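Working notes for the structural subgroup meeting. M.R. asked for a predicted model of this chain before we commit to crystallization trials. I am recording the input and output together here so anyone reviewing the notebook later can reproduce the run.

Input as submitted:
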Amino acid sequence: MKIHHVYFISVLFLSFIVGCTASPEVQKNASKSTLSGVAEKEGDSGSSITLKEEGPRLQQKEAKRTEVVANQSQKTNTPPMQAPKKKGKKKEKPQKSAKKTKKKIEKKKDINTKPKEKKVPVEKKSEPKKDIIAEFEGVEITKETYVQTKSEIEIVVDELNRITARKAYFEWLKYISDDYKKAYSNPVRLKAVSEALPIKGIHLKSLRDYFSYVFVPSRQNICVDDIHFVSPTRVEVIMERNNSKLLVYSIENLSDGWKLIPPK
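Returned structure, recorded in token form:
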């Protein structure tokens, strides 16, 4: 029996060595052949152990050994399996803001629509320069002021023409200033005017004498051909006669309207 066991162990050792280099199919065939050989020898020696009893155990042992050998051969011969790379999640692109999308839509609309016409800037009409006739200490007399003043004085002169035609002394007093009354009530001035009269022998003694003998004969049918500003409120009334300009009135705009003033 000892001889059989030694033989059995040596056969297993050889099969182990062969199994390390052989493929799994060869190893299976070799194990089968060794098992059959051992069974034949044991049958010839007349041992009590039969192939039917030892066969399954040996097959289990051989199967385990072949698995170990196969694992070792795979470790030595086959390259290591690379672990599957984990698929990383794709980085999601940041969504474009709603404003950008709106801008793109607007641009597309602009392309489809007709190009806007460029607005030509309208030049503002510059105000016409004022025609300045005269200026007194910063006060400008414009053409407009001239026209307005002339029309107002024409109304006054027309009223004076009616007064002189009727010789209405008391109505005439409404159109003369206080300075005018004082000047032609002064005896000295009345004497000078009397001496200048074309009719000799008339001596003026009062304001009423001046109205009757000087103003009424010399101020009939007066027309306003032109006016001349002496100040912002004082105006000289000019009448043209025989290609000459005559100063007929000096008039001033006072608090109660246009009044006659004595010439300087």
